[in-house]
Amino acid sequence: MTELHTIACIGEQEPINVTSIAERINLSKGNTSKIAHKLLKAGWVRKAQLNDNKKEVYFRLTPVGKKLFAAHDELHTKEKQRMYEFLERYNESELEFIKRLFGDMVDFYR
Question: In the predicted model, what is the mean pLDDT of residues 95-105?
Answer without folding.
Answer: 96
